[in-house]
Design goal:
single chain, mainly alpha, three-stranded antiparallel sheet, 17 helices, about 50% helix, binds carboxymethyl coenzyme *A
Length: about 425
Amino acid sequence: MANSTAKLELGGENREYEVLEGTVGPDVINIASLYRDTGMFTYDPGFTSTASCESQITYIDGDEGTLLHRGYPIEQLADHGDFLEVCYLLLYGELPTKAQKEDFDYRVTRHTMLHEQMSRFFTGFRRDAHPMAVMCGMVGALSAFYHDSTDISDPHQRMVASIRMIAKMPTIAAMAYKYHIGQPFIYPRNELSYAANFLHMCFAVPCEEYHVNPVLARAMDRIFILHADHEQNASTSTVRLAGSSGANPFACIAAGIACLWGPAHGGANEAALNMLAEIGTVDRIPEYIDRAKDRDDPFRLMGFGHRVYKNYDPRAKIMQKTTHEVLGELGIKDDPQLDVALELERIALTDEYFIEKKLYPNIDFYSGITLRALGFPTTMFTVLFALARTVGWIAQWKEMIEDPNQKIGRPRQLYTGATQRDYVSIANR
Ligand code: CMC
């Protein structure tokens, strides 16, 4: 990292802070000693200008609409790779050789079953529980079952925990779904690919044969690839913050799942599809566009806008292609929600408000339509996002634990509350 400096003049005193250069992307001003030097903090709600860590995993150029994992463009990974190859890349930093890939696939596949006792946990949930609530609880519970991979100071245990989570997440997600709809759990089938096995666990029933459609399995795999990692987003930062205290990886991923659930983050695909259903027909779009522009109306076009992308989300383009492939394969010609989506996209891309604010469709705009066509209810959408994002969370968590400069995360605040005052007894208040 080549260094230059940034000058800060404060109270008549000049100070210099080093400017760190990444391999690509904005430089950062290292203000780690600012408080020591000046007694002041920086103030940046929502971290819009703050780099919270150094990372070598994922790079996003939001202005260009570029997403790279370990340097490889998402388009190339989605076109040529499979999800487990991307998992290997995120975890180990390089694409696997053929032998490494076979070994990795084997290791993941051999961890797909859940401890049998865990299956009884599901029955503790109300059957109308949201599957995200179930998933959050089940992933947290993994730490109660796999004690032999919770010692974060042991690199071997860290990798075992990572593989276990990638392997077991589809099983937990599918079981949450089956419990939700009242069908028996389907055990993993290790001869199937990662995505095909997941579809099988979701849609097979014990009373008949179920063959996974390879086109749909490929689409599912691509959806997993598109969601695998996205640098320091809210849930990943949550995982890092939770992990910075030394918490075990299963607990950290449960924290990430909780954060992902929100409609401004992973819950947006569910919200986007609900919005398309609410709009209903193309003629009602202008009404919703007007509402989105109205500052007094809290309504936002779900699936539009992104903190980092001020251009077309590259994942949304691949997702749109996948949507058409899935609808084509299933012979769905007239999908009213797809009609509304296409027209909404067309109008928003030509509307001055959206152009000026650089609001483009994000990945969630199309993923909901695709997932619904694959047969998933909207309540499962964020669960699928969590399943795929687990590898990103765990790769970022590992990177943090292995960083010699890692410290517990402890943001500061601008306090605007009451100053010190004396307690008043309840009778005198
Ligand atoms: N519809 C209408 N106006 C919007 C939208 C939208 N979807 N998104 C942002 N704006 C406006 C916003 O009102 C604000 O206007 P003004 O400057 O007049 O106050 C301006 O654009 C900037 O918005 P912001 O809220 O300051 O931007 P942010 O970076 O804090 O928020 C976001 C990013 C993703 C939370 C937001 O765009 C949003 O709420 N989008 C809808 C939810 C969504 O689709 N989320 C999925 C994100 S992609 C998947 C993931 O990473 O989880």
